[in-house]
Amino acid sequence: MRVALDTNILAYAEGLGDELRCSAALQLIAQLPVASVVVPAQTLGELTRVLTGKARRSSTATREAVLGWADSFEVADSSWTAFQAALDLLVDHQLPMWDALILAVAAENRCRLLLSEDFQDGFTWRGVTVVDPFAKLRSPLLAGLLTH
What is the predicted pLDDT for the residue at 148? Predict the structure, then answer.
């Protein structure tokens, strides 16, 4: 099963946020089967903004962090088809454009899960189910992925 990561998961893993979520994100990423993980390029773009803006990291440190994630997992580019689908998500489901693009790229790359706390937990679109990995009740899909 393929799984995509949203920006907030990587931001927590980079130490931005409360200690509980940061620790949980690191543990989650360590448990994911590397070959199953997809990181949309949009996620890395947003992470760059968060690290330089909110965390005030240097551009050099930010580049190293972002390239490290890109070295660790498959990066999925945004296509025109995904962008068009994101526009539909914007209109049909009132999703923010850049979140919608991450979901559309996940679907285009045959992901079954999108790990994020920015969407409605359990929202499913084109076969991709959004799972909040920090929810009190763990999704059976995520639990199944982590046990393999």
Answer: 63
